What does this fold into?
Amino acid sequence: MGTYNSYFLLNTPATALNTSSTYTSSAITITGAVLQAASVHIALLIFGRIVIGMGMAVAATATPMFVAEISKPSYRAFASAVYYACWQVGALLATGVCYGTNDWTSNWTWRFPSLFQVVPSVFAGVVVCIVPESPR
It folds into this structure.
């Protein structure tokens, strides 16, 4: 799904891949996480996962270019490396949240990790407010 969505984003004009793409990614991911956490049957859970995948495809395609554009040339490689390292930090946090809810006996065992996916998206939406606009 991510590769399919990325194909359309790669054909998007470069001027459209600025802060608005990060806001769009955050909104799509938040919507998917809420749908997934509020699901009452497997179809809605799967639909929520698909929506999250679409939001993550936007983030994985547009955000690295945005990070490279707003970074000073001397720090560009470091900023890109930190961006990609944050994906692994996020995976580690997600694993910790899932492990922490492992002993719960209610539906919140899987609902809380699903809802926790909102946190990075809200963080990205807030951080984008304080970074400069792309020079392009």
DSSP finds six helices and no strands in the chain. The two ends are 29 Å apart (CA to CA). The helical segments are 2-10, 19-37, 42-70, 76-100, 108-116, 118-130. The chain has one domain: 2-130.
